[in-house]
Each structure stands twice: as C-alpha cells, then as structure tokens.
Design brief:
The chain is an all-alpha fold. Helices cover 45% and strands 0% of the residues. The chain is elongated, with a radius of gyration of 19 Å.
C-alpha cells in the first residue's frame, strides 16, 4: 500500500479502493495503527473507513487487569 499525500482528500473510486484494501488487511490481522502508518493516514481516518465498510472491530489487546486473583496459602 503506497502512502497517500498528507492532507489530500480521498473520495469516489479511490476511497472505495482504499476501503476495500484496508478492510482486507484488517480482517487478515493487521492493526488499525499498522494500516494508518502504511497508508500515511491518521488512525481516526482508517477507523472511520473500517466502520463505514461494516467491519466488526476487534477488542483492544494487551493486559486489561481483569485476571483472577491468586489464592494464597491459608495461615495455620
């Protein structure tokens, strides 16, 4: 994917092609941040295109702090 000039409007056929390409890469496992960097567009722009295309976005990755607490040894 070739980066698109910063600040340039993308509409019509070009936008449709970009949306299709981003959707395909996202569903193959690429992150929104990776797609934004590769396309030269912002995170928000890529996120919006994916939503407009009907993609179900994945949840956030990484630790979320909801791990069950380890049970300690009982005191005698």
């Amino acid at each position: 994917m070739a980066p698109i000039a910063k600040g340039r409007r993308i509409s019509g056929t070009e936008r449709s092609k970009l949306t299709t390409e981003l959707k395909k890469k996202y569903t193959s496992g690429s992150s929104i941040r990776e797609l934004a960097a590769a396309s030269g567009r912002s995170y928000g722009f890529v996120h919006r295109l994916l939503l407009e295309s009907g993609v179900t976005l994945r949840g956030r990755g990484g630790a979320n702090g909801n791990k069950p607490k380890a049970k300690g040894k009982a005191k005698s």
